[in-house]
Amino acid sequence: MLNGDLDLTINDQDALLVVDLQNDFCPGGALAVPEGDAVVPLVNRLAQAFDNVLMTQDWHPPGHGSFASSHPDKAPFETVEASYGTQVLWPDHCVQGTEGADFHADLELPGAQLVLRKGFRKQVDSYSAFYENDRKTPTGLTGYLRSRGFKRLVLAGLATDFCVHYSAVDARREGFAALVVEDACRAIDLDGSLAAARQAMTEAGVGFVDAAALGV
User: Fold this and answer.
1) DSSP code per residue over 156-193
2) Is 185 annotated in the active site?
3) Residue 70, in any domain of the structure
4) Could you list the residue range(s) of the whole structural domain that residue 195 is in?
5) Distance (Å, rounded) from C-alpha 128 to C-alpha 122?
6) Active-site annotation holds for 73
7) Is 92 a catalytic residue?
8) Would the N or C end of the chain have less CB density within 10 A of its end CB?
9) Is residue 88 assigned to a domain?
10) H or E element at residue 128
């Protein structure tokens, strides 16, 4: 799907942000996104079209507050009220130093210039590449992008309705253009979360495109 007025010319003010393409989010992983691994070949091709490639990596300590296992009376995908609002509880995933936290073995991004780790504070989850879920604690990505003169983020990876969604909306919040490559993403779609995420991204001014429209 393509928004009609998008500039599809890739230049040195664009950065490709590859979101959380890690084993635990792929089939067989602890929090598998359906067909999550299917985007890897397309992301590899996308990366060849960009001079600037950035990556995010979920990086949770054991016993993270967003894990259902940290709440004895709760099951995965139930919610709790955290200090910063409602938090979905997840299966233990992307624990620091584990195979599940590693990037997918077929991901080939040798030119990646930044790996931004998020979710490492034990009591605060972090979907966005820009802010943790308290919506106050920055990751430092805004300053990095501005210091390097980037104007637009093009996003791919996992999952459309969580980390891609929050990262894209926060890119707009911080004054950057944002473009989601839909066929290079996959969603969890938890209780209608994909439709809600797409609406929120649209309202924030995020554009949507397929990789073919970028010449990939």
Assistant:
1) EEE-IIIIIHHHHHHHHHTT-EEEEEEEEEE----SSH
2) no
3) no
4) 14-61+94-214
5) 16
6) no
7) no
8) N
9) no
10) none
Catalytic residue among 58, 92, 118, 161: 118
DSSP 100-151: GGSBPTT---TT--EEEEE--STT----SSSB-TTS--B-SHHHHHHHTT--
201's enclosing H/E stretch is helix 193-204
Q: Is residue 148 part of a domain?
A: yes
Strands 114-118 and 85-88, by their bridges, are unpaired
Residue 21 lies in a domain: yes
209 neighbors 8 (Cβ within 8 angstroms): yes
Residues in the chain: 216
Tens place of pLDDT per residue across the chain (216 aa): 344 568 889 999 999 999 999 999 999 999 999 999 999 999 999 999 999 999 999 999 999 999 999 999 999 999 999 999 999 999 999 999 999 999 999 999 999 999 999 999 999 999 999 999 999 999 999 999 999 999 999 999 999 999 999 999 999 999 999 999 999 999 999 889 999 999 999 999 999 999 999 989
Q: Which of 20, 125, 161, 170 is catalytic?
A: 20
Residue found by looking up tokens 């943790």 in the block: 132
Is 38 strand, coil or helix? Answer: helix
Identity of residue 105: A
- Provide the number of structural domains found in the chain: 1
pTM: 0.95
Strand pairing report for 79-82 and 207-209: unpaired
Catalytic entry in 26, 94, 163, 185 = 163
